[in-house]
């Protein structure tokens, strides 16, 4: 039972990371109608920069904090160099060009840092000690750092909601998503608005990468896995919907984590151990996609269809 | 007819060059296996071009279909069966079935959703392939031998294999082109241009698209089975989504309209990759930007280069004067 609780918390925390990446992806798609495969690259860079700066400065937290402006700058640079020229192109061109960006940036990462996973400072001792763990059930310590990530998952969506729904900037973003020509006619620089939204999304993804760096291996290609799960999140949640992305991200995070932990053991009840391990692992990695197919079968536009489908 | 011949002149020349290549100094094992790879990927690219250019279905999971074909060969090999009469139809059928099932779900959506879902299914196939430890898992699987045909080891000869691939490539190109020109293909294209209007005339796009998707899967399954034979090694990397992206790049680089563009694109990219990776360690640092630049600036792909240069030449002052004289 406590095993299930731990896995559920791990799943929630993975879901939060997915949400941070998916939110930017969904925002950029909703506002600019741009499908950006290179969003996972921002996540990867966030992790790399946080890891490297963390080791340099001697503090994980300082490194993570410094990763934010770096991710923002990289996002701005990429927007200026490539993405700006893709807003008016068809989705096929966008997919290909952003795919080219992924190849380039991942190769550059390999050239700069090598292919081996990076060392990352531990933010706090992962278990034990007053700072390291929190006793959630009697006799069961859960790492504080992972709880902090879940906490971020409560704060950031609320902040995002406030920003988009309750501020002037958010109002412009929403207006720009549905009636760009009208907003431009009213004297708003729509290009700059796009750039700001894009850079903000890039920063969120970089933040997610920095948070993830002590938990997942920091290696080239780490962005791809997350990116593709984020697509699943967006498809399930409904394109362009932040609320849908949040719920779907938690769902995908929970399903993936619990499935991987539980399925091989569960199958052992009906199959022999080696077959159970193999089918369990295969089934667990398919679980999220099966769920997606199931949800799409009944709701082709996702759970919360956004403004733009 | 002559106009048609002219628009196909570039790919026809490429096919002739491929036929002549073994006798023009490209007959060694390395060059032949490289060309075989290019032709096999060309088949998969043609089938993807049928989807993208013909039906307007931008699939980002096409490598998975090839992977299903390749892994069927692997599964039979692991079971000790290497008879081509069994293995090849099975590989094609397995890939077609996979395409049919995933297509039935994916085609309920369109546009960006479709891109993301095909990508997700492709990734699902990738992870499934990695988790089958009896078929090599992450490390891949080395075939005991190439597939036989009625007990003879005819595919072991590189030259025979070269011409088999060439013949199949030409056949796939011809078949898909005929399909696009047929009534079936016209419905596909109509549904791509304007789904509402196609529906209003009485055609439901869904079954047509599903058939096209399944057929493209079958062709890619054939390509996958051939690819497994060409390298005698299959690993999950064959199904990775970067492979799907590469196939898409082949289609776009060649040009989306006519299917033959995909053949040109496949040849160009396989040879370019080979050349760059010999030249540089981090060759993707060149390949990636080339991809971005070709998307941003090369509208219409390689196949459009000839008519475009001709049109540009016509605009030059001295050629215009000649035309008037």
Task: Using brief descriptors, characterize the structure shown.
heterodimer; A: 309 residues; mainly alpha; two-stranded antiparallel sheet; 2 strands; 74% helix; 3% strand; globular; B: 325 residues
Task: Kindly report how far apart the N and C termini of chain A lie.
Answer: 41 Å
> What can be said about the biggest beta sheet of chain A?
2 strands, antiparallel
Overall outline of chain A: globular
Which structural class fits the helix and strand makeup of chain B? mainly alpha
Kindly report the spatial arrangement of strands forming the biggest sheet of chain A.
Answer: 1-2
The major β-sheet of chain B equals: 2 strands, antiparallel
Portion in helices of chain B:
over 70%
Assembly type of the chains comes to heterodimer
> Which stretches of chain B of 5+ consecutive residues score pLDDT under 50?
none
Report the strand count of chain A.
Answer: 2
* Percent strand of chain B: under 5%
- CA radius of gyration of chain B is 20 Å
Catalogue the unreliable spans of chain A. none
SSE topology string of chain A: HHHHHEEHHHHHHH
Mean pLDDT of chain A: 84
Summed over residues and divided by their number, the pLDDT of chain B gives a mean of 86
